[in-house]
Amino acid sequence: VTIGGQKVQVELESEDDQADPRIATTVAQKFVDDKVSGIIGHLNSGTTIPSSRIYNDAGLVQISPSATNPKYTQQGYKGAYRVMANDVQQGKVLGEFAVKDMAAKKIAIIDDRTAYGQGLADEFEKAAKAAGGNIVVHEFTNDKASDFTAILTKIKGVAPDLVFYGGMDGQGAPMVKQMQTLGLKAQFLGGDGIHTAEFMKLAGAAAEGVTASLPGVPLEQMPHGADFKQKFEGKYGKIQLYAPYCYDAMMVMAEAMQRANSTEPAKYLPEMAKTNYNGVTANIKFDDKGDLQGGSITVYRVVKGDWQVVKTVTGQ
């Protein structure tokens, strides 16, 4: 990368926040103290939101490749951006899909009370109701739970035709297994938190027929997805879900630095709003909050042990 007429070597400093908000703020403070030029991250909404305040106070640019909770970009922080559709967009698509495509009339909702799970479930509930669905029960668990028998027994009593789960694979997988054990016949729908290889591994045969979404379009349909996949897998092995978004986040940041002729956050931050980058995942432009304009959502279903594309909904 050439910035201000000089060759610049980009160095990666990485830390693991362990999906824990307290550890995330410690990591954020370390990055600030180390005088980094910008942040790509964090992974989860529950860590991205508390750390964003620290980055904002330090005048840093933060681009999340994966945190989807709307609150992250609604705080008014000038340096907060994301390159993936948010949960307002994702919840809306899932709520409409449940009622219109999955013909769900009686819907049960469970969420894990995290920033991600609760946020997605609330947006799903709004959209499902607007589409004419009837929410018969909304139950709560947490992101460390493994036994959902009591909640699922209660849900079985109201006989829904669809269960929506707002949360991650570690809870979603035992949940679908326990639904089978209890003879709860409802369809199971979730967001990107359960659209993982880990979910498939943990749920086993119970994963069959499960439906879940991912922000964005499938890798094969991304503007430069096939080329990226070939290069990435040639160097690092199997591609991880968020890799193309991380790549785009870094390139968007580098381009803003080039336009500003500086790696100093105070100088390149104003350039971020002017982004119009032809990325791997999409053509990236931001709205006035720092959210991706026109973010797409794709719905998938497990068919014969594999996530198959059902439908892509392109955002406006």
In short:
The protein is α/β, with parallel strands linked by helices. Helix content is 40%, strand content 18%. The strands form 4 sheets. A 7-stranded mixed β-sheet has the order 7-6-8-9-10-13-14, with helices on one face. Strands 3-4-5 form a 3-stranded parallel β-sheet, with helices on both faces.
Outline the structure in words.
By secondary structure, the chain is of the alpha/beta class. The chain is built from 10 helices and 14 strands. The chain has helices at 21-33, 45-57, 87-101, 115-130, 149-157, 169-182, 197-203, 225-236, 243-260, 265-272, and strands at 2-3, 6-7, 39-40, 62-64, 80-82, 106-111, 134-140, 162-166, 187-190, 211-215, 277-278, 283-284, 297-303, 306-313. The chain is elongated and about 65 Å long. The protein starts with a strand and ends with a strand. The mean pLDDT is 96.
Notable features of this structure?
single chain, 316 residues, alpha/beta, seven-stranded mixed β-sheet, three-stranded parallel β-sheet, 10 helices
Structural class: alpha/beta
Overall geometry comes to elongated
Arithmetic mean of pLDDT: 96
Instruction: Strand order, main sheet: write it out.
Output: 7-6-8-9-10-13-14
Helix content: 25-40%
Number of helices: 10
Beginning-to-end CA distance, first to last residue: 33 Å
Low-confidence stretches: none
Largest sheet descriptor: 7 strands, mixed
Proportion of β residues? 15-25%
Task: Provide the succession of SSEs.
Answer: EEHEHEEHEHEHEHEHEHHHEEEE
Computed over alpha carbons, the radius of gyration is 20 Å
**Counted beta strands:** 14
